[in-house]
Amino acid sequence: MKFNRIKKIFGYMYELHRRNFKLYFKPTRNPLHDPVETNSIHWVGHATVVINLFNKVIVTDPVTSMNLGQIKRLIKPSLNLSTINIDYILLSHGHMDHMNYSTLIKINKSAIVIAPKNLKLPLKVLGFKNIIILTHNQTYIDSYINIKALKASHDGRRYPWGAKAESNSYIIKRKSKKIFFAGDTAYTNVYKDLVADVAIMPVGCYKPDEFQDLHCTPQQSFKMFKMTGAKIMIPIHYKTYILAQDKDEVTRDTLKRINDGSIKIIDVGQTVKLEDSK
């Protein structure tokens, strides 16, 4: 049994590196470049989203590196985050595809960073001064925004050794707008009846099947979205890196098949305008 498990891991790693190696002989694709507007959501790539709520700018899991180790980016980031003034940074957990040091070091250090408790030290080393640590069901409130952390079903430790670490999902509220950012999560019923304008949901990294202990399938993501009571689902966490055995075209086709009109399937670099309200 142990031999079969080791054999399976080596087979998975071989296939992962084979697919990534082939990318070095292909040009990196160019994204769309829709502008970030007031009250909008812009997908930079992977789990990096720029949310503008009444001209307060929130960025989730900023990762714009062209490489994660030997893993090459499929498509260029649509924005240079160092050129925009970010008010809040939300980190869901410490994995390298969600917390990227080379990206964070270039971002304005005046931003308020909200993160799980195990990320405080690296954020201080990176030069951030306004670090807010939230564990599950805790809320950060200031004059402009209300951000609540929820428990994501995902082991957030940066490396595979050591104690398990928390991963956060976030509910972001400003004035009349409410956005749910799931981060990275396996299937869970924690998000029931959140009721939001938009749910930003992960849909990648679910193959082999063992990965579903940490990541949801597109069908599971859609089911969780429906559970939240949100109006619109924006799928992310795909089309940017090859991190597992699932293929983006299969994920896209699955989303199209299950879409009842509430899934807004977008490309990297697209902006979704939120419904007008005061």
Q: Can you walk through the features of this model?
A:
A hairpin with a 2-residue loop joins strand 1 (40-45) and strand 2. A seven-stranded mixed sheet has the order 8-7-6-3-2-1-15. It has a six-stranded mixed sheet with strand order 9-10-11-12-13-14, covered by helices on one side. A two-stranded antiparallel ribbon has the order 4-5. With 278 residues, the chain is α/β, with parallel strands linked by helices. Helices cover 19% and strands 24% of the residues. The protein contains five helices and 15 strands. The chain starts with a helix and ends in a 5-residue tail after the last strand.
Q: Any idea what the radius of gyration is?
A: 18 Å
Q: Please, what is the average pLDDT?
A: 93
Structural class: alpha/beta
Low-confidence stretches: none
The percent range for helix content is 10-25%
Strands of the largest sheet, in order across it?
Answer: 8-7-6-3-2-1-15
Shape: globular
Beta-strand content estimate: 15-25%
Task: Provide the fold topology.
Blueprint: H1 2-23, E1 40-45, E2 48-53, E3 56-60, E4 67-68, E5 71-72, E6 88-90, H2 101-104, E7 112-115, H3 120-125, E8 130-133, E9 139-141, E10 146-151, E11 168-174, E12 177-181, E13 198-202, H4 218-228, E14 232-236, H5 248-258, E15 271-273
Parallel strand pairs: 3-6, 6-7, 7-8, 12-13, 13-14
Antiparallel strand pairs: 1-2, 1-15, 2-3, 4-5, 9-10, 10-11, 11-12
